[in-house]
TrEMBL record:
GO terms for molecular function: thiamine binding; thiamine pyrophosphate binding. PANTHER family: ABC TRANSPORTER SUBSTRATE-BINDING PROTEIN, THIAMINE-BINDING PERIPLASMIC PROTEIN-RELATED. InterPro entries: ABC_2-AEP-bd, Ferric-bd. Keywords: Signal. This is Putative 2-aminoethylphosphonate ABC transporter, periplasmic 2-aminoethylphosphonate-binding protein.
Length: 354
């Protein structure tokens, strides 16, 4: 009897194990099937990491059958990667890349023109002028100088008010700025100076400024962060990072040079040849939506959807009027290779080591 009971227990245990294994296999198969039922979009981006999760969560909540897979790097690196992949594109969509970079991709025939739903609600100044457009803007970012008041006082440095001030000998070795080949912020600075001052005087200005530069960083955020910690008293950066560094308690003043501010647009576009076209369109539709623009307004003083932007501490109310008007994205895109080659020949010796 005891032997029969033992055999019964062993048989029961084996049945439980089998049932558990079968149950687990069924669960895994169901989970795998569910995952496979989602369309995965490979999205190249230069978005600040602070923002990526909110955009992903918002889009996937509205589109539960689509999943974003980000590939993130700085603007210059993402642009170079896309151009290198021209004959074998990998990305489905580009989100949060500079409009100057997207204009270049458009000139290379790499973007699929598309007018997203709701585009007519957006400020046309922040949308590609072609119809249908190659890219649609999300928000504007512009140049800002982060000035550490404590470190400047120690060094007896006056507060600059203009770009020309920063070229004065008193600031020798005290300034950091982004490398234009790596950083979209660096490139918008360079192209703004060339357009504001004219090419001849623009290069003369950068020659003088170069004497005062300690380092060209590969990040648009880093110069302001370095100014905030006091590593250098002056960092040429952009307003979003300046606002964040100031809000963290760093002793910096945000300066908006009186000649005008270079600027660019974070924008989205569909890569030509994507195998997930309908899902790609849905992502670009959503990036143009009021919901997406409300997310953008958490950081940016200017967004593409009118009436959504909020007051950002430290950013002047007339900020939009400070942006230079002579800002031709197509010119900046068309001349990118030439401008970067000339810039590197003149100034690359002070580039941050990678």
């Amino acid at each position: 009897m005891q032997q029969q009971f033992a055999r019964f227990l062993r048989a029961g245990a084996m049945a439980s194990v089998v049932a558990a294994v079968l149950g687990t296999s069924f669960t895994l198969a169901t989970s795998s099937s569910h995952a496979q039922s989602k369309t995965q979009l490979l999205v190249y981006t230069a978005l600040e990491t602070d923002a990526m999760k909110l955009y992903k969560d918002g889009f996937e909540k509205a589109n539960p059958n689509i999943e974003i897979r980000w590939v993130r790097d700085s603007t210059g690196v993402v642009t170079a990667k896309l151009l290198a992949e021209k004959n074998n594109p990998q990305a489905d969509v580009v989100v949060g890349l500079a409009a100057t970079s997207l204009a270049l991709l458009g000139q290379e025939g790499m973007l699929l023109p598309y007018e997203p739903k709701g585009m007519k609600e957006l400020n046309p100044a922040y949308v590609d002028s072609a119809r249908p457009p190659n890219w649609v803007g999300m928000d504007v970012w512009g140049a800002t100088v982060c000035f550490n008041t404590i470190e400047a006082k120690k060094l007896n440095l006056p507060t600059p008010t203009s770009w020309q001030d920063l070229a004065k000998p008193i600031y020798k070795g005290q300034i950091v700025m982004p490398h234009p080949a790596s950083s979209g912020t660096g490139y918008l600075d360079v192209t703004a100076w060339l357009q504001m001052f004219g090419e001849t005087n623009g290069w003369k200005y950068m020659d003088a400024l170069h004497q005062n530069i300690a380092q060209y960083t590969h990040s648009g955020s880093k110069p302001c962060t370095m100014a905030g910690t006091g590593e250098f008293p002056i960092g040429i950066s952009f307003e979003f990072r300046g606002h964040q560094v100031k809000r963290s308690g760093a002793p910096i003043e945000l300066i908006f040079p009186k000649e005008g501010l270079g600027w660019d647009i974070e924008a989205s576009g569909i890569m030509k040849g994507t195998k997930n076209l309908e899902a790609a369109k849905k992502l670009v539709d959503w990036m143009a939506s009021k919901d997406a623009n409300q997310i953008s307004s958490n950081w940016w003083a200017i967004v593409a959807y009118p009436g959504i932007a909020k007051k950002v501490e430290g950013i002047p109310d007339n900020y939009e009027k400070l942006l230079i008007t002579q800002n031709d994205f197509n010119w900046s895109a068309k001349n990118r290779e030439r401008i970067l080659a000339e810039w590197s020949t003149r100034y690359n010796a002070k580039a941050e080591k990678k």
